[in-house]
Design goal:
single chain, alpha+beta
Length: 247
């Protein structure tokens, strides 16, 4: 029986041609120092014919190919599974509403956004923990806008991870003599983006003020002139919206 380093490929190949066959590999204890990964113990097989050597070599190759195929298949399943999850999320199949009897149509959900007193924006911090903040919002078409400061944790979260979720609740009522709550709600999924053009910011700020302070619009121009430059305006483009009602 002979001992050969696995890194000595020319010697290993020569011994195999001469009729030696690997018995078993032994892992080297200090591969970095020695430069050897395994010590191969090989033995000469007198009865081994050329046909047997070819057969064994072919079996080795087939086993290697099979192992490579299994690895490729596992990687494909992992990648395909991730893609399918993404597609299902886009189609809304991963978070379908459990209570179908309370689900409402898109128009109803949009009306909740338009009439709620405030909304709650859910974000993801850099470390993966959740962060939520209440907002005053106004919807113009398929975009929901809100105003904020130009820096802070909310801004950092949206710039790092613009995919957000917005929750709106309205028409909350507590029926007397019952342990329940009636309400209307809407949940919005979308992508947040910043509004930078001054004229567009002014238009959105006007819509926000008109919704929440309609009796004070005579003072809008003065207040906008003083605060527009240091006011942040962001939008959420609606990718999907669901509505729910508990009567």
């Amino acid at each position: 029986m002979l001992e050969v380093a696995d890194t000595n490929e020319s010697a290993v190949a020569l011994y195999e041609k001469l009729g030696f066959w690997k018995i078993h590999p032994v892992k080297e204890k200090h591969p970095k120092q020695s430069g050897i990964n395994y010590l191969l113990y090989i033995q000469y097989d007198k009865a081994q014919t050329d046909h047997e050597r070819v057969f064994r070599r072919r079996a080795e190759v087939e086993l290697t190919v099979f192992a490579a195929f299994i690895l490729f298949f596992l990687r494909f399943l992992l990648k395909y599974g991730t893609i399918m999850i993404r597609i299902r999320q886009m189609l809304g199949e991963t978070d379908r509403m459990r209570r179908k009897d309370r689900e409402r149509e898109t128009e109803f959900a949009l009306s909740v956004v338009d009439t709620c007193s405030f909304a709650v924006l859910s974000l993801v911090r850099q470390d993966g923990t959740p962060y939520s903040v209440p907002l005053h919002v106004v919807r113009l078409g398929d975009v929901i806008y809100f105003h904020c400061a130009q820096e802070g944790e909310k801004i950092d979260c949206m710039r790092r991870h613009p995919q957000v979720c917005l929750s709106c609740v309205g028409a909350v009522h507590f029926p007397p003599g019952e342990f329940t709550t009636s309400y209307e709600s809407a949940t919005v999924f979308g992508t947040a983006f910043e509004i930078c053009q001054a004229e567009e910011k002014r238009k959105i700020l006007w819509a926000l003020c008109l919704r929440y302070t309609p009796d004070n619009m005579a003072n809008f121009d003065r207040e906008a002139e003083a605060s527009l430059s240091h006011t942040g305006i962001w939008g959420i483009r609606i990718a999907r919206i669901t509505g729910k009602q508990r009567r």
